[in-house]
Structure prediction request, 392 residues.
Amino acid sequence: MKHILLLLLATVSLCNAADGLLLDLIVPPRDGDRFLHAEYSCWIADASKPVKAVIIHQHGCTNASPDKHPPITGDWHWRALAWKHDAALLVPMYQVAKGCDEWNDPDSGSEHALLTALEDFAQRSKRPELKDAPWVLWGHSGGSSWSAQMITRHPKRVLAASFRGGCHKQFGVPEFRAKFGPIARDLPLLFVWGKRESVPTSSHFVSWEPMNTMYRELREQGGKVCRVIDPRSEHGCDDSRLMSINFFDALLSGQASAPPSTDASTPWQPNDTFAALWREFSEHGTLKPKAPPLHAPSLTAKREVNGIHLSWRIVPNLEGGLRAIRLHRDGKLWKEIGIDEDAFLATGRDSTPEELRAHSLVDETKDSHSYTMIFLDIGGNESPPSEAVRVP
Prediction:
């Protein structure tokens, strides 16, 4: 009966071949599970190629509705990381009746639900290796707590992890640190905390000292752990994805050449390239890349009953992300879609800003037009233009 229910609640979106494969699943609770239901979204860039890793992007305790904070499976920045490394993006979203302990404790049923989703996605994508592929864990707040516990339960399966705040119930407990330390010592970890979390008046100050204690203990053991303090933020994710995505990129690229050390006064950084990004982010809370985006966007246009349907695909540079999209019609700027120059690249929960969630639009015209498109990164650098498309 459970298998039938899962099939009834599963959906699939077969995007354009270049846009990859998008799968969704709702997993109901078993007897004894504490969450109401679990929603999963999974994106695979190219289902004809083997999946080498699964990037699990786990929200925090105050996760709102998917309409306000949609999963990053539709986010061009995170997609660029997954596309580069033949990884799947997987986003769990748990609905609960009371507190987040009803999902962020793996024994609540969330661990079993995740494994169920992986098995389902492996079957429907016809990529059986997805079920057992290694994990890259990203967690925010309560999602960091969940990730830390999953590392102790699946130590050989995790390639790297990034924690954005949280973990006070784990790192604040000596018994957990004693268990976590030997397991995580050789695991590349990134701790990202907001500067305004470091003051006692912050409601999230509770995790500040536990994080620093765990960081020091890991570094004293030679742990591969990097700590970065976001000078512009409190507990929101904001531009911190610029650190997490580029940290994961260095590791998945096999470019983590820095040897471990026991110097607790300095963070471990995978290589000189990331170290330069770390210094810039630590000072400014963002990055201002000098190099423009490498990849031109792809743009398609199709005449429909209500006008011309335009859709696009974007692969931003990992250090620059995506700030704006500019569509030109007949050689003139027609529409600009994006966020302000000083706006954060992500919502406080690391979802795509509302302005950049659209992957298509309709030009309600009966006339013939030619279209091109460029996009801008966080520094305002322009991508090469797309090929022009003309619709009669």
About this structure: The radius of gyration is 21 Å. The chain is about 25% helix and 25% strand. The CA atoms of residues 269 and 276 lie 10 Å apart.
